[in-house]
Amino acid sequence: MAEHPLLPFPEDWTTALVLVAHPDDPEYGMAAAVARWTAQGRRVVYALASSGEAGIEGLDPAECGPLRETEQRASAAIVGVDEVEFWGFPDSEIRNTPELRAAITQAIERVSPEVVLSLYGGPEWAPGQPNQRDHMEFSAAVLDAYDAMAIDHRPPLLFENGPHATHAVDVTEHIEDAVRSLSAHDRYLSVLDPDNPVTEQARTQVDMTTAARDDFGGRRASGFELKRAAPRWVTDTDPGHSQWYIDRFRTMADEGADLDGEARMIDAMVGRGARILDAGCGPGRVGGRLHTLGHRVVGVDVDPELIAAARADHPGPRWLVGDLSILDLGGSAPDDAEVTEPFDAIVAAGNVMVFLRSGTEAQVLSRLAAHLRPDGIIVTGFHTNRDLSLADFDAAVEAAGLYVEHRFATWDLRAFHPDADFAVSVLRLRTSPS
Ligand SMILES: [Zn+2]
User: Fold this and answer.
1) Distance from Cα 245 to the centre of ligand 1, integer Å
2) Between residues 432 and 92, which one has the greater pLDDT?
3) Distance 101 CA to ligand 1 centre (A)
4) Cβ(337)–Cβ(309) under 8 Å?
5) Pairing of strands 343-348, 275-279
6) Could you tell me the CA-to-CA distances from 198 to 47, 60, 171, 179, 195 in Å, in that order?
7) Domains of the chain, with CATH numbers?
8) How many CB atoms sit inside 10 A of residue 404's CB?
9) Is 388 helix (H, G, I), strand (E, B) or coil?
10) Distance CA 29, CA 149 (A)
11) Quick check: 20 pLDDT over 90?
């Protein structure tokens, strides 16, 4: 998504857990952002898989480990972090093992953060700059541990600090904090490069990881890539909510209620046998009807219970469990053309926009846009008097490279008016031919 400006990092949280492999990992890219957050009164906790005991050349690991722990605690304190834990996994031998995943899960359960910040796990920072194996294994373990947690126990947001940023934190006021924080790894840095003063080494590194960004208004920023986002559907509803929702629509269907309004509108706007993505499909009501009308439908929802109901009640479409904020159908099933081909229409009905994680609306819309044919449409419908205002939605539409082509007050196309409490919006790509 490099073609879009970076989104501001959400700040509607109180506790963040920084998960890394070694001492100094937080300081290389995150400390300036951490300084900003703790200055705002937020709680940030550091957890480190190893004590970095193999990190100082010529120093016995038995001496090195405790020294690096001391330097790490000093470094954390400078940016307002008083809680630092070390798990004792072997430095330079970090592997994505059940033991490491268990330690990650336990830390998440103990700290109970709304935001998890992890290490970059890709193979290269840039062409010819390979990532460390410890970092890649650790990052994979964090994602695996997160995905294995019960859906309603997962922290709402998981980011990695790396080169493919989706979000940025303005750290203009906290550059010096970050330099001092990295400089606290005094012994480590002075052995690493004896000819270059520690503070100069730290400044060079911090300047590199907090450079002014053209894609963030020219401001100095720390970049983070959103890897997981639990929607409000998961975090803000009661246990049993999914089954309640399934039963409610099954009952209405049994009573002969007209549940096809959304599908009729979409059907009128596309050609015969169109490819349609039902985004946030729930138990499959809209996509199921569109399939019956002869369209080729893929449905995606984050809630496995709803997907199971869709498969049971509406066989035919492809129903997939997936997170809309990181949707990548091409990456998840590269050889499956039925899933990966771009879509003629994408529908997000049933208040999907309202149940997203707050602050991820633009990211979700840009992931949907990435799955759309150039002349395709995205159609959303949601109540505008709940947690997402129409103004915020329109800002997200703009940030995602889309525009509103039509807006109605209902799925049967009554005119939109200022007092309407529901909005059906037809979106197109700004670059589309017409
Ligand atoms: Zn490291």
Assistant:
1) 45
2) 92
3) 18
4) no
5) parallel
6) 24, 22, 22, 10, 9
7) 7-230 (3.40.50.10320), 233-429 (3.40.50.150)
8) 17
9) coil
10) 27
11) yes
Confidence band, pLDDT 50/70/90 cuts, at residue 5: confident
**DSSP string covering 77-136:** HHTT--EEEE--PPTT-----HHHHHHHHHHHHHH--SEEEEE--SSEEETTEEPPHHHH
| CA 216–ligand 1 middle distance (angstroms) | 27
Distance from Cα 184 to the centre of ligand 1, integer Å: 16
Predicted TM-score (pTM) of the model is 0.83
State the distance from the centre of ligand 1 to the C-alpha of 330, rounded, in angstroms.
Answer: 31
- What's the gap in Å between 57 CA and the centre of ligand 1? 15
Bridge pairing between strands 296-301 and 318-321: parallel
Ligand 1 centre distance from Cα of residue 230 (Å): 27
- CA 134 – ligand 1 centroid, Å: 7
Instruction: Give per-residue pLDDT as tens, 35-64.
Output: 999 999 999 999 999 999 998 989 999 999
DSSP letter for each residue of 392-425 = HHHHHHHHTTEEEEEEESSTT-PBP-TT-SEEEE
The residues whose Cβ lies within 5 A of ligand 1, an ion, are 21-22, 25
Contact in structure between 401 and 378 (CB atoms under 8 Å):
no
Q: How far is the CA of 135 from the centre of ligand 1 (A)?
A: 6
- pLDDT score for 331: 78
- 9 C-alpha to ligand 1 centroid (Å): 23
The whole-number pLDDT of residue 6 equals 86
Q: Residue 2 — pLDDT band, cuts 50, 70, 90? A: very low
Task: Give the pLDDT confidence score for residue 357 in this predicted structure.
Answer: 87
Please tell me the distance from the alpha carbon of residue 104 to that of residue 159, in angstroms, as a whole number. 15
235: left (phi over 0), alpha (psi -120 to 50) or beta: alpha
pLDDT digits (tens, 9 = 90+) for 117-152: 999 999 999 999 999 999 999 999 999 999 899 888
Task: Express each pLDDT in 209-261 by its tens digit.
Answer: 999 999 899 999 999 999 998 888 888 888 888 999 999 999 999 999 999 99
Distance 24 CA to ligand 1 centre (A): 7
Whole-number Å distance, alpha carbon 192 to ligand 1 midpoint, is 14
* Measured distance CA(106)–CA(201) in Å, rounded: 35
